[in-house]
Write a structure and sequence with these properties.
The protein is α/β, with parallel strands linked by helices. Bound molecules: adenosine-5'-diphosphate (ADP) and magnesium ion (MG).
Length: 350
Amino acid sequence: LATPMAIMVGTGRGATAGVLIRNAEALERLESVDTLVVDKTGTLTEGRPEVVQVTAANGFSERDGATLAAAGEVGSEHPLAAAIARHAARLSIEVPRADEFAAVPGKGVVARVGGRRVAFGNAAMMQDLGVPLEGIADAAEALARRGQTVMFLAVDGRLAGVVSVADPIKKSTPEAIAALHGEGLRIVMLTGDSRVSAEAVARELGIDEVRAEVLPGEKRQVVAELQRQGRIVAMAGDGAHDAPALAEAAVGIAMGTGADVAIERAGITPVKGDLRAIVRARRLSRAPMRNIRQNLFLAFVYNAIGVPVAAGVLYPVLGTLISPIWAGAAMTLSSVSVIGNALRLRHVAL
Ligand code: ADP
Ligand code: MG
Protein backbone atom coordinates (compact mmCIF):
# COMPACT_ATOMS: atom_id res chain seq x y z
CA LEU A 1 0.00 0.00 0.00
CA ALA A 2 2.84 2.39 0.89
CA THR A 3 4.33 2.46 -2.60
CA PRO A 4 1.38 2.08 -5.01
CA MET A 5 -0.69 4.68 -3.14
CA ALA A 6 2.07 7.29 -3.45
CA ILE A 7 2.61 6.50 -7.13
CA MET A 8 -1.12 6.54 -7.85
CA VAL A 9 -1.78 9.83 -6.10
CA GLY A 10 1.43 11.34 -7.55
CA THR A 11 0.55 10.41 -11.13
CA GLY A 12 -2.96 11.72 -10.51
CA ARG A 13 -1.48 15.02 -9.35
CA GLY A 14 0.62 15.06 -12.53
CA ALA A 15 -2.45 14.49 -14.68
CA THR A 16 -4.26 17.46 -13.15
CA ALA A 17 -1.17 19.56 -13.97
CA GLY A 18 -1.21 18.35 -17.59
CA VAL A 19 1.53 15.69 -17.35
CA LEU A 20 0.69 12.05 -18.08
CA ILE A 21 3.05 9.59 -16.42
CA ARG A 22 3.13 6.05 -17.72
CA ASN A 23 4.74 4.30 -14.77
CA ALA A 24 6.69 4.63 -11.57
CA GLU A 25 10.04 4.03 -13.29
CA ALA A 26 9.61 7.04 -15.54
CA LEU A 27 8.88 9.22 -12.54
CA GLU A 28 11.74 7.81 -10.52
CA ARG A 29 14.31 8.12 -13.32
CA LEU A 30 13.33 11.67 -14.14
CA GLU A 31 14.69 12.71 -10.78
CA SER A 32 18.23 11.72 -11.79
CA VAL A 33 18.20 13.02 -15.38
CA ASP A 34 21.01 15.52 -16.15
CA THR A 35 20.62 16.01 -19.91
CA LEU A 36 17.53 16.84 -21.92
CA VAL A 37 17.66 16.13 -25.64
CA VAL A 38 14.95 18.00 -27.54
CA ASP A 39 13.76 17.68 -31.07
CA LYS A 40 13.47 21.09 -32.72
CA THR A 41 10.44 20.87 -34.98
CA GLY A 42 7.17 20.53 -33.09
CA THR A 43 8.89 20.42 -29.70
CA LEU A 44 10.72 23.75 -29.45
CA THR A 45 8.79 25.22 -32.35
CA GLU A 46 5.08 25.23 -33.13
CA GLY A 47 5.58 22.50 -35.73
CA ARG A 48 3.46 24.51 -38.10
CA PRO A 49 5.89 25.98 -40.62
CA GLU A 50 4.81 28.65 -43.11
CA VAL A 51 6.43 29.55 -46.41
CA VAL A 52 8.24 32.88 -46.16
CA GLN A 53 9.78 33.21 -49.56
CA VAL A 54 10.06 31.48 -52.93
CA THR A 55 13.05 32.43 -55.05
CA ALA A 56 13.10 31.32 -58.65
CA ALA A 57 16.18 30.28 -60.62
CA ASN A 58 17.19 29.28 -64.15
CA GLY A 59 14.23 30.81 -66.01
CA PHE A 60 11.49 29.37 -63.79
CA SER A 61 8.99 31.77 -62.22
CA GLU A 62 8.18 31.91 -58.52
CA ARG A 63 4.75 30.55 -59.37
CA ASP A 64 6.32 27.60 -61.25
CA GLY A 65 8.41 26.94 -58.17
CA ALA A 66 5.42 26.98 -55.82
CA THR A 67 3.42 24.81 -58.23
CA LEU A 68 6.04 22.12 -58.77
CA ALA A 69 7.00 21.98 -55.11
CA ALA A 70 3.35 21.53 -54.15
CA ALA A 71 2.91 18.81 -56.79
CA GLY A 72 5.97 16.99 -55.47
CA GLU A 73 4.73 17.15 -51.89
CA VAL A 74 1.25 15.78 -52.58
CA GLY A 75 2.13 12.32 -51.28
CA SER A 76 4.08 13.54 -48.22
CA GLU A 77 2.80 13.74 -44.64
CA HIS A 78 5.68 15.94 -43.51
CA PRO A 79 4.75 19.27 -41.84
CA LEU A 80 6.87 21.00 -44.50
CA ALA A 81 4.63 19.46 -47.17
CA ALA A 82 1.60 20.98 -45.46
CA ALA A 83 3.29 24.40 -45.50
CA ILE A 84 3.94 24.11 -49.23
CA ALA A 85 0.33 23.03 -49.84
CA ARG A 86 -1.05 25.99 -47.83
CA HIS A 87 1.19 28.37 -49.77
CA ALA A 88 -0.06 26.99 -53.12
CA ALA A 89 -3.65 27.31 -51.90
CA ARG A 90 -3.07 30.95 -50.91
CA LEU A 91 -1.86 31.66 -54.45
CA SER A 92 -4.90 29.76 -55.83
CA ILE A 93 -2.57 27.42 -57.65
CA GLU A 94 -4.17 24.34 -59.12
CA VAL A 95 -1.68 21.65 -58.14
CA PRO A 96 -0.89 19.33 -61.07
CA ARG A 97 -0.96 15.55 -60.65
CA ALA A 98 2.25 13.82 -59.67
CA ASP A 99 3.25 10.19 -59.91
CA GLU A 100 6.23 7.97 -59.05
CA PHE A 101 6.27 9.76 -55.74
CA ALA A 102 8.93 8.84 -53.19
CA ALA A 103 9.76 10.42 -49.84
CA VAL A 104 13.40 10.37 -48.76
CA PRO A 105 13.37 10.51 -44.93
CA GLY A 106 15.24 13.50 -43.54
CA LYS A 107 15.92 14.87 -47.02
CA GLY A 108 12.84 15.54 -49.12
CA VAL A 109 10.66 14.17 -51.88
CA VAL A 110 10.98 13.14 -55.51
CA ALA A 111 8.15 12.75 -58.03
CA ARG A 112 7.32 12.94 -61.71
CA VAL A 113 5.11 15.88 -62.66
CA GLY A 114 3.87 16.12 -66.25
CA GLY A 115 6.85 14.15 -67.53
CA ARG A 116 9.38 16.20 -65.55
CA ARG A 117 11.52 14.85 -62.75
CA VAL A 118 10.90 17.02 -59.71
CA ALA A 119 13.00 16.82 -56.57
CA PHE A 120 12.35 18.98 -53.54
CA GLY A 121 14.37 18.86 -50.38
CA ASN A 122 17.46 19.98 -48.49
CA ALA A 123 21.02 20.59 -49.64
CA ALA A 124 21.99 17.00 -48.87
CA MET A 125 19.31 15.79 -51.26
CA MET A 126 20.57 18.10 -54.01
CA GLN A 127 24.07 16.80 -53.41
CA ASP A 128 22.85 13.19 -53.67
CA LEU A 129 21.19 14.05 -56.99
CA GLY A 130 24.22 15.96 -58.25
CA VAL A 131 22.36 19.25 -58.59
CA PRO A 132 24.82 22.15 -58.23
CA LEU A 133 23.76 24.98 -55.91
CA GLU A 134 26.32 27.57 -56.94
CA GLY A 135 24.94 31.05 -57.36
CA ILE A 136 22.22 30.41 -54.81
CA ALA A 137 24.14 28.97 -51.87
CA ASP A 138 24.90 32.39 -50.32
CA ALA A 139 21.29 33.56 -50.48
CA ALA A 140 20.18 30.23 -49.00
CA GLU A 141 22.67 30.56 -46.16
CA ALA A 142 21.44 34.08 -45.36
CA LEU A 143 17.90 32.70 -44.95
CA ALA A 144 19.12 29.83 -42.81
CA ARG A 145 21.00 32.25 -40.57
CA ARG A 146 17.63 33.74 -39.69
CA GLY A 147 16.55 30.31 -38.46
CA GLN A 148 14.53 29.45 -41.54
CA THR A 149 14.46 26.02 -43.16
CA VAL A 150 15.66 26.24 -46.74
CA MET A 151 14.56 23.76 -49.39
CA PHE A 152 15.69 23.45 -52.97
CA LEU A 153 13.62 22.57 -56.01
CA ALA A 154 15.24 20.74 -58.89
CA VAL A 155 13.52 20.03 -62.19
CA ASP A 156 15.14 17.49 -64.51
CA GLY A 157 18.37 17.78 -62.56
CA ARG A 158 18.56 21.59 -62.69
CA LEU A 159 17.95 23.98 -59.85
CA ALA A 160 14.58 25.74 -60.31
CA GLY A 161 14.11 27.56 -57.04
CA VAL A 162 14.56 27.93 -53.32
CA VAL A 163 11.75 27.89 -50.80
CA SER A 164 12.30 29.10 -47.27
CA VAL A 165 10.00 28.25 -44.44
CA ALA A 166 9.76 29.61 -40.91
CA ASP A 167 8.43 27.68 -37.96
CA PRO A 168 7.78 30.02 -35.04
CA ILE A 169 9.18 29.14 -31.64
CA LYS A 170 6.44 28.17 -29.16
CA LYS A 171 5.60 31.01 -26.79
CA SER A 172 6.29 28.76 -23.79
CA THR A 173 9.74 27.63 -25.01
CA PRO A 174 12.05 30.43 -23.71
CA GLU A 175 10.55 30.22 -20.22
CA ALA A 176 10.75 26.41 -20.30
CA ILE A 177 14.43 26.51 -21.31
CA ALA A 178 15.21 28.94 -18.49
CA ALA A 179 13.40 26.75 -15.94
CA LEU A 180 15.13 23.60 -17.21
CA HIS A 181 18.50 25.33 -16.94
CA GLY A 182 17.45 26.30 -13.42
CA GLU A 183 17.01 22.61 -12.69
CA GLY A 184 20.64 22.16 -13.75
CA LEU A 185 19.87 20.31 -16.98
CA ARG A 186 22.07 20.48 -20.05
CA ILE A 187 19.92 20.99 -23.14
CA VAL A 188 20.84 19.39 -26.45
CA MET A 189 18.85 20.21 -29.58
CA LEU A 190 18.45 17.44 -32.12
CA THR A 191 17.21 18.13 -35.63
CA GLY A 192 17.25 17.04 -39.23
CA ASP A 193 17.40 20.68 -40.26
CA SER A 194 20.57 22.34 -41.57
CA ARG A 195 23.33 23.28 -39.14
CA VAL A 196 23.08 27.00 -39.92
CA SER A 197 19.35 27.30 -39.27
CA ALA A 198 19.53 25.00 -36.24
CA GLU A 199 22.30 27.10 -34.71
CA ALA A 200 20.34 30.30 -35.30
CA VAL A 201 17.41 28.88 -33.32
CA ALA A 202 19.70 27.45 -30.64
CA ARG A 203 21.46 30.78 -30.16
CA GLU A 204 18.16 32.58 -29.77
CA LEU A 205 17.06 30.11 -27.08
CA GLY A 206 20.39 29.69 -25.28
CA ILE A 207 20.58 25.97 -25.97
CA ASP A 208 23.82 24.33 -24.82
CA GLU A 209 24.56 21.95 -27.66
CA VAL A 210 23.28 21.38 -31.22
CA ARG A 211 23.16 18.16 -33.21
CA ALA A 212 21.95 19.18 -36.67
CA GLU A 213 21.52 17.38 -40.01
CA VAL A 214 20.72 14.19 -38.12
CA LEU A 215 18.83 11.69 -40.25
CA PRO A 216 15.62 10.30 -38.68
CA GLY A 217 17.22 6.87 -38.23
CA GLU A 218 20.22 8.35 -36.39
CA LYS A 219 18.37 10.12 -33.59
CA ARG A 220 18.41 7.00 -31.44
CA GLN A 221 22.20 6.71 -31.85
CA VAL A 222 22.72 10.29 -30.64
CA VAL A 223 20.83 9.46 -27.43
CA ALA A 224 22.77 6.21 -27.05
CA GLU A 225 26.08 8.03 -27.54
CA LEU A 226 25.26 10.61 -24.85
CA GLN A 227 24.32 7.81 -22.47
CA ARG A 228 27.59 6.03 -23.16
CA GLN A 229 29.35 9.24 -22.08
CA GLY A 230 27.65 8.76 -18.71
CA ARG A 231 24.85 11.26 -19.13
CA ILE A 232 21.39 10.38 -17.89
CA VAL A 233 19.23 11.44 -20.78
CA ALA A 234 15.61 12.42 -21.13
CA MET A 235 14.54 12.80 -24.75
CA ALA A 236 11.61 14.99 -25.76
CA GLY A 237 10.15 14.66 -29.23
CA ASP A 238 6.90 14.59 -31.13
CA GLY A 239 7.40 12.86 -34.46
CA ALA A 240 7.00 9.23 -35.44
CA HIS A 241 10.73 9.25 -36.26
CA ASP A 242 11.50 10.23 -32.69
CA ALA A 243 9.92 7.09 -31.19
CA PRO A 244 13.09 4.91 -31.23
CA ALA A 245 15.09 7.70 -29.57
CA LEU A 246 12.38 8.10 -26.92
CA ALA A 247 12.59 4.38 -26.19
CA GLU A 248 16.40 4.54 -25.98
CA ALA A 249 16.49 7.40 -23.47
CA ALA A 250 16.28 6.83 -19.71
CA VAL A 251 13.07 8.85 -19.86
CA GLY A 252 11.10 9.36 -23.07
CA ILE A 253 8.95 12.48 -23.20
CA ALA A 254 6.39 12.76 -26.01
CA MET A 255 4.62 15.99 -26.78
CA GLY A 256 0.89 15.29 -26.42
CA THR A 257 0.31 17.16 -29.65
CA GLY A 258 2.58 14.79 -31.58
CA ALA A 259 2.41 11.37 -33.22
CA ASP A 260 0.71 8.44 -31.47
CA VAL A 261 3.76 6.16 -31.87
CA ALA A 262 5.87 8.67 -29.99
CA ILE A 263 3.31 8.86 -27.17
CA GLU A 264 3.22 5.05 -26.96
CA ARG A 265 6.98 4.88 -26.42
CA ALA A 266 7.12 7.70 -23.91
CA GLY A 267 7.22 7.49 -20.13
CA ILE A 268 5.99 11.05 -19.78
CA THR A 269 3.58 13.02 -21.95
CA PRO A 270 2.92 16.74 -21.47
CA VAL A 271 -0.68 16.86 -22.70
CA LYS A 272 -0.56 20.29 -24.28
CA GLY A 273 2.88 19.85 -25.81
CA ASP A 274 4.28 22.43 -23.42
CA LEU A 275 7.92 21.91 -22.38
CA ARG A 276 7.30 23.69 -19.07
CA ALA A 277 5.45 20.52 -18.06
CA ILE A 278 8.84 18.75 -17.91
CA VAL A 279 9.88 21.08 -15.11
CA ARG A 280 6.63 20.30 -13.32
CA ALA A 281 7.16 16.57 -13.83
CA ARG A 282 10.64 16.85 -12.37
CA ARG A 283 9.37 18.62 -9.30
CA LEU A 284 6.69 15.99 -9.03
CA SER A 285 9.25 13.21 -9.35
CA ARG A 286 10.80 14.10 -6.00
CA ALA A 287 7.60 14.21 -3.95
CA PRO A 288 6.37 10.60 -4.34
CA MET A 289 9.78 9.14 -3.49
CA ARG A 290 9.86 11.11 -0.26
CA ASN A 291 6.25 10.17 0.38
CA ILE A 292 6.98 6.47 -0.14
CA ARG A 293 9.71 6.62 2.51
CA GLN A 294 7.32 8.30 4.94
CA ASN A 295 4.66 5.70 4.15
CA LEU A 296 7.04 2.83 4.81
CA PHE A 297 7.91 4.42 8.13
CA LEU A 298 4.22 4.74 9.02
CA ALA A 299 3.52 1.17 7.91
CA PHE A 300 6.32 -0.28 10.01
CA VAL A 301 6.21 1.86 13.12
CA TYR A 302 2.90 0.32 14.28
CA ASN A 303 4.28 -3.18 13.77
CA ALA A 304 7.61 -2.33 15.34
CA ILE A 305 5.83 -1.23 18.52
CA GLY A 306 2.74 -3.44 18.44
CA VAL A 307 4.28 -6.84 17.67
CA PRO A 308 6.82 -6.87 20.56
CA VAL A 309 4.19 -5.58 23.02
CA ALA A 310 1.72 -8.25 21.85
CA ALA A 311 4.50 -10.85 22.19
CA GLY A 312 4.84 -9.81 25.86
CA VAL A 313 8.02 -7.73 26.17
CA LEU A 314 6.25 -5.35 28.57
CA TYR A 315 4.31 -8.08 30.42
CA PRO A 316 6.92 -8.88 33.10
CA VAL A 317 7.31 -5.17 33.98
CA LEU A 318 3.92 -3.54 33.42
CA GLY A 319 1.65 -6.52 32.87
CA THR A 320 0.71 -5.05 29.45
CA LEU A 321 -0.37 -7.09 26.41
CA ILE A 322 -2.39 -6.02 23.37
CA SER A 323 -5.87 -7.31 23.06
CA PRO A 324 -6.97 -8.51 19.59
CA ILE A 325 -9.32 -5.52 19.41
CA TRP A 326 -6.49 -3.02 19.81
CA ALA A 327 -4.30 -5.05 17.46
CA GLY A 328 -7.02 -4.91 14.83
CA ALA A 329 -7.48 -1.19 15.37
CA ALA A 330 -3.73 -0.56 15.07
CA MET A 331 -3.61 -2.57 11.85
CA THR A 332 -6.35 -0.45 10.36
CA LEU A 333 -4.86 2.76 11.67
CA SER A 334 -1.53 2.01 9.98
CA SER A 335 -3.31 1.67 6.62
CA VAL A 336 -5.26 4.85 7.26
CA SER A 337 -2.08 6.75 8.12
CA VAL A 338 -0.39 5.55 4.95
CA ILE A 339 -3.38 6.49 2.80
CA GLY A 340 -3.74 9.83 4.55
CA ASN A 341 -0.08 10.61 3.99
CA ALA A 342 -0.20 9.56 0.33
CA LEU A 343 -3.25 11.74 -0.26
CA ARG A 344 -1.22 14.77 0.79
CA LEU A 345 0.49 14.41 -2.60
CA ARG A 346 -2.65 15.80 -4.19
CA HIS A 347 -1.61 19.19 -2.90
CA VAL A 348 2.05 19.21 -3.97
CA ALA A 349 2.83 22.58 -5.56
CA LEU A 350 4.10 22.16 -9.13
P1 ADP B 1 13.22 17.40 -38.16
O1 ADP B 1 14.28 16.70 -37.39
O2 ADP B 1 13.33 18.88 -38.01
O3 ADP B 1 11.84 16.87 -37.92
P2 ADP B 1 13.33 15.95 -40.72
O4 ADP B 1 14.30 14.87 -40.41
O5 ADP B 1 11.92 15.57 -40.85
O6 ADP B 1 13.53 17.17 -39.72
O7 ADP B 1 13.80 16.67 -42.08
C1 ADP B 1 15.10 17.23 -42.20
C2 ADP B 1 15.18 18.17 -43.39
O8 ADP B 1 14.94 17.44 -44.60
C3 ADP B 1 14.15 19.27 -43.38
O9 ADP B 1 14.61 20.39 -42.67
C4 ADP B 1 13.98 19.56 -44.86
O10 ADP B 1 14.97 20.43 -45.32
C5 ADP B 1 14.17 18.21 -45.51
N1 ADP B 1 12.89 17.51 -45.73
C6 ADP B 1 12.41 16.44 -45.08
N2 ADP B 1 11.21 16.06 -45.55
C7 ADP B 1 10.89 16.95 -46.51
C8 ADP B 1 9.76 17.13 -47.40
N3 ADP B 1 8.70 16.33 -47.36
N4 ADP B 1 9.81 18.15 -48.25
C9 ADP B 1 10.87 18.97 -48.30
N5 ADP B 1 11.94 18.87 -47.52
C10 ADP B 1 11.97 17.87 -46.64
MG1 MG C 1 10.35 15.98 -37.20
